[in-house]
Design goal:
Distance between the termini: 43 Å
Helix content: 40-55%
Number of helices: 10
CATH class of the domain at 9-170 and 213-244 and 276-294: Alpha Beta
Order of helices and strands: EHEHEHHEHEEHEEEHEEHEHH
Number of strands: 12
Strand content: 5-15%
Oligomer: single chain
Bound molecules: NADP nicotinamide-adenine-dinucleotide phosphate
Radius of gyration: 19 Å
CATH architecture of the domain at 9-170 and 213-244 and 276-294: 3-Layer(aba) Sandwich
Length: 315
């Protein structure tokens, strides 16, 4: 019998980028589609107490993915909503879940909760050693408070809340809207469009020197499922791929996958964000046997194929 087949599971944000992959993963691992609760924001606003109470009704497990967020530009333009929405959604949802007697609460946290100058690779023990990179701080700190809440609820109520620190994800279904998107979808779109229109130069944000780690979205979904099944600890766990690449090398890799042969010009007036990012992923392997499987080049190719195939529906 599968862990999932007798459970009613709330997946907040279940219609989002990661959420769709997670729902697919849960169903292929025994969850019943009828027992998955996926609230949409236009019907159930999780920023309201009533929305949270109705969402957790008769639920066994909560996997909280719903978020107000986006790339670096979105975070710069919306710091207040990013802080308020993410804090208030998570705090109320966890309290409603506790009152409802939910068995387990799985929180999708973020690498943006780490201090700006964390030694590389980021270890969970270093999470509290400084303030996050400024543009990410309202997002990273709002989510980090939910780690504190989960630990306090475990200590006082015996509530089983776990907190996963997710690295940047990419893959099919990502947001390709240039206003709000992350670096991978933004560059795929720019290169595909430049190639089609015969433009021979593409502008890329920042200096290219910052480094990042990328986790293929279906791998992230697998990691969340394994953690939900097997991890019941109060300490946060990094969920990443354990690889590091500079933005310059990433841009060149994407250009190659797309077949864009023009020049890249670096707009150094735009922020680089956090200087380096690379997670120590040993705790996830030790605690619940998670290791990312998808190589960056393969994942980029699948993401580009998704963009090209779905352009008609992408704004
Ligand atoms: N993407 C990344 O690279 C990344 C990196 C680290 C961590 N994470 C974390 O992973 C999780 C999933 O991210 P994602 O990129 O998949 O997000 P996403 O595609 O933007 O999806 C967010 C979802 O949240 C729901 N939502 C937003 N506000 C809501 C509200 N007020 N009430 C109810 N639902 C609401 C939306 O529902 P509707 O569609 O119905 O509006 C949407 O489906 C987030 O917690 C994020 O912080 C993501």
């Amino acid at each position: 019998m599968s862990f999932w087949n007798d459970k009613r599971v709330l997946v907040t944000g279940g219609a989002g980028f990661l959420g769709k992959h997670l729902v697919e993963n849960l169903i292929s691992n025994g969850a019943s589609a009828d027992a998955l609760v996926i609230p949409r924001s236009n019907e159930t606003d999780l920023r309201t107490w009533d929305g949270c109470v109705s969402a957790v009704k008769d639920v066994d497990i909560v996997i909280h993915l719903a978020v107000t967020g986006g790339g670096i530009d979105f975070n710069r333009r919306h710091p207040a909503e990013t802080f308020y929405d993410n804090a208030v959604m998570g705090i109320q949802l966890m309290e409603a879940a506790r009152r409802e007697g939910v068995d387990k609460f799985v929180m999708a946290g973020t690498i943006c909760s780490y201090p700006k100058h964390t030694p590389v690779p980021f270890r969970e023990e270093d999470l509290w050693n400084g303030y996050p990179e400024e543009t990410n701080a309202p997002y990273g700190l709002a989510k980090k408070m939910l780690l504190v809440q989960g630990q306090a609820y475990r200590a006082q109520y015996g509530f089983n809340s776990i907190h996963l620190l997710l690295v940047n994800m990419y893959g099919p279904g990502d947001d390709f809207d240039l206003k709000d998107s992350h670096v991978v979808p933004a560059l795929i779109r720019k290169f595909v469009e430049a190639k089609e229109s015969g433009v021979d130069e593409v502008e890329v944000w920042g200096t290219g020197k910052a480094s990042r780690e990328f986790l293929y979205v279906a791998d992230a979904a697998e990691g969340i499922r394994l953690a939900a099944e097997k991890y019941d600890g109060s300490e946060p766990v990094n969920l990443g791929a354990g690889m590091e690449i500079t933005v310059k090398d990433l841009a060149e890799a994407i250009a190659e996958v797309v077949g864009f042969e023009g020049r890249l010009s670096w707009d150094a007036t735009k922020p680089d964000g956090q200087p380096r990012r690379l997670l120590d992923v040993s705790r996830a392997k030790d605690e619940f046997g998670f290791e990312a499987r998808t190589q960056l080049k393969d994942g980029l190719a699948r993401t580009m194929e998704y963009f090209v195939a779905n352009r008609g529906t992408i704004s």
